[in-house]
Amino acid sequence: MLVEANSSLSKHENETKLSRDSMEIFKIASTTTFLFAIFIASIAGNLLVFLVFYKRPVLLTISNRFILNLSICSSLNTVLVMPFMFGALIAEDWIFGAEWCKLTGFLMNAIFAASTLTLVAVSLDRYCAVVTPLHYQMRITKRRSVLMIAAVWVLALLVSLPPLFGWNRYTYQKDKGTCTVLWSSPINDERYYTYSLVILTFILPLCVILWAYRIIFKAAQNNSERTRRNSVIPNNQIDETCSTQTPLRFERRRSSTAPILHRRLSTSSSRAGPLLWHRDEWKTAVASLLVVSTFIICWLPYFIIIILETVLANSKDIPPVLETVSILLAMMSFACNPLVYVFRSKLTRQELKILMKIQSRESINMSLSRRGSESVFSREGIVHQSSTESDTVPFEKPLHSSSTSTTLTSLVCNPNVISQRS
User: Fold this and answer.
1) Which is nearest to 223 in space by CA: 414, 410, 418?
2) pLDDT digit string, tens, across residues 222-237
3) Beta carbons within 10 angstroms of residue 67's beta carbon
4) What's the rounded Cα separation, in Å, for the pair 351 and 355?
5) End-to-end CA distance of the chain
6) Which of 66, 190, 202, 233 has the highest CB neighbour count under 10 A?
7) Cα 312 vs. chain centroid, distance in angstroms?
8) pLDDT per residue over 246-289, tens digit each?
């Protein structure tokens, strides 16, 4: 009986160990697969960004210098950090030496800090372009943009150096799959370093980004409201238009159709304007929400884990899967940045299609000119319809042209509009 009990116990232990090993293999496989997908997306997206700016230097405006710096941060992290994270995840240990562990932790910390601070610079640049467009060129000059980018890297390096000189330290952490700061240090002085890092590289940047995009959306909303109030064509202008700009064949039957044209012009004008500006408000809101939500989703879990490891008496109470997910989300931000800040711009997408031979420049220009002429008439609601035919009444100039709301929207998605116009 004793032998049977021991054999059944041993069998149960073997099954438990096998199940644990299977779970561990699944965890390693899923983590490395997800990290590999991030690696490929980051490499492809940032290479395309470099290609567009290299082939079309005219696109490298002052605003896009910040975007280029963001792509440099993403590329450095992808090339210098992710490959060693792959090796550590597969080996379940750090196999590259103690000195390289310190260097990897330092590089990752500095790149993470530079990335979040660059996002602050992007938000401030767009704030100046949208809220004070007339003073944009005086406030954001080439020299100041270079100084801002230099300040980003200097501050990122400064906040990452202390662990190399004894204020905390860089160590390998299995659940994170890489070398990073020992956030769970029991020494109070080392915890102060963690608090300082979180404040400088996450809390303050998050506050600035939220404030900037809130002001941007409010400015777009206020401007759209002013444009809606001024976009309806006055009756005397419609009468003058009907009498001076109407073709001869329309003039012969003016007595019967002029009231209809008058009524339809005023109706379509009052409807088309608000619809257009509401659409621009919606685009601005979506762009702002996308930027803020991407930043929060990618970085908030990472910094929450850092704070929990620092505050909790026993950091092992944190589930290992949460630590793994937090570092993967932080890595994912480097793959998302090109999509959020570059490829949402219609101009960039068009240039990319030209460079990749997907579409010719001539066809894009024809499409833009045709779409532009249609948008002018639809914006003003100047459409003539009769019982027998439908024609667009030609005007030499728009009766009321205001592109500021559209500019505000385009600046949120494409910040080089101001620079191109200048």
Assistant:
1) 410
2) 776 666 666 554 555 4
3) 26
4) 6
5) 92
6) 66
7) 33
8) 444 444 444 444 444 444 444 444 444 555 445 656 666 677 78
State the pTM of this model: 0.73
Residue 111 near residue 73 (C-beta atoms within 8 A): yes
- Neighbouring CB atoms inside 10 A of 73's CB total 27
Reading the block at residue 6, the tokens are 């021991």
Question: In sequence order, what are the beta bridge partners of 173?
Answer: 178
- DSSP secondary structure of 170-190: EEEETTTTEEEE-TT-S-HHH
Cα–Cα distance for residue pair 337/45, rounded to 1 Å:
9
Burial class (CB in 10 A: 0-12, 13-18, 19+), 28: middle
Helix (H, G, I), strand (E, B) or coil at 246: coil
Distance, in Å, from the CA atom of 90 to the CA atom of 286, rounded to the nearest integer, reads: 39
Residues 6+ apart with CB under 8 A from 292: 209, 210, 213
DSSP for 108-124? HHHHHHHHHHHHHHHHH
The predicted-structure confidence for 298-348, as pLDDT tens digits, reads as follows 999 999 999 999 888 787 888 888 999 999 999 999 999 988 888 887 888
Nearest 5°: phi and psi at 358?
-80, -35
Cα atoms in the 13 Å half-sphere on the side-chain side of 204:
11
Distances (CA, A) of 109 to 162, 172, 182, 194, 197: 11, 13, 12, 12, 10
Q: Please give the structure tokens belonging to residue 92.
A: 């379940």
Please report where in the chains the tokens 């300082």 appear, as a residue.
Answer: 196
